[in-house]
Amino acid sequence: MSTRPSHARPARARPACRGAYRPQWTVRTTRLMVGIPDYQTYVDHRRTTHPDQPVMTYEEFFVERQNARHAVGKGRFRGCC
Fold it and tell me: Which contiguous run of DSSP H or E holds residue 80?
């Protein structure tokens, strides 16, 4: 005799590959939370959407994103305090 009610759904098996993506997802989410954009997502987007335009190096990308985040060059950057 089963202890589960007859109207309950059967338990779903988790895909075997699900855990393989968790570290990448965790790192990506953590970086976005602290303001570090994901370079690989940028590269994938540029190659897919704008294949005729150059892709920035990681260093160029990082500096550009930091400047955009802190509004450098728009007269609004005041430092940390």
Answer: none
Residue-wise pLDDT for 33-77, tens only, equals: 776 678 888 899 999 999 999 999 999 998 888 877 776 666 655
Instruction: Tell me the C-alpha distance between 18 and 3, whole Å.
Output: 29
H helices within 1-81, ranges in order?
18-33, 39-49, 58-69
Are residues 55 and 46 in contact, defined by beta-carbon separation less than 8 angstroms?
yes
Instruction: Answer whether 0.85 is exceeded by the pTM.
Output: no
- What's the alpha-carbon Rg for the chain, to the nearest Å? 22
Of 63, 62, 60, 59, whose CA–CA distance to 73 is shortest? 63
